[in-house]
Amino acid sequence: MTLTHFDEAGRAAMVDVAGKPETERLAIARGRIVMAPETLALIAEGKAGKGDVLGVARLAGIMAAKKTSDLIPLCHPLMLTKVRVDLTIAGPDTVEIEAQVSVTGRTGVEMEALTAVSVAALTVYDMVKAVDRGMRIEGIHLALKEGGKSGRFEAAP
């Protein structure tokens, strides 16, 4: 079976995964948002004008993972079995974001994990942009993928 995003006429199409066996699949994505130390202090102290920035961003990332097929063309809708999004203050100016997504299915969850990290970072930006428009979202990448025919992938540290 050849998996492709093109149909017989060369048009974009969703891959037919009906013949693939269901397997346990896991993806972990990571990224970070870098900001002024004063902005991160507001977040850490719970003094941001819009409330619990990291809590809202965590929830936004989880919700985004569940809606990935609505956002990314040709992405399969999946019944996710686990979505975890962690935001960690990693220095005076950096919040590290990690999303772990699992499914038992016929296709992987890399896009769901990457979407969760992206939306969590964008949510942090949105919630404190009034005090720091110079924030940078950086390094969003697939860190680990397990399951399926292609097996395990782990990004170099």
From TrEMBL:
GO terms for molecular function: cyclic pyranopterin monophosphate synthase activity. It holds the Pfam family MoaC. Pathway: Cofactor biosynthesis; molybdopterin biosynthesis. It is an enzyme of class 4 (lyase). It catalyses: (8S)-3',8-cyclo-7,8-dihydroguanosine 5'-triphosphate = cyclic pyranopterin phosphate + diphosphate. Keywords: Lyase, Molybdenum cofactor biosynthesis. The active site is at residue 126. Residues 14-148 form the Molybdopterin cofactor biosynthesis C (MoaC) domain. NCBIfam families: moaC, PRK09364.1. Homohexamer; trimer of dimers. HAMAP family: MoaC_B. Belongs to the MoaC family. This is Cyclic pyranopterin monophosphate synthase. It comes from Sediminicoccus rosea.
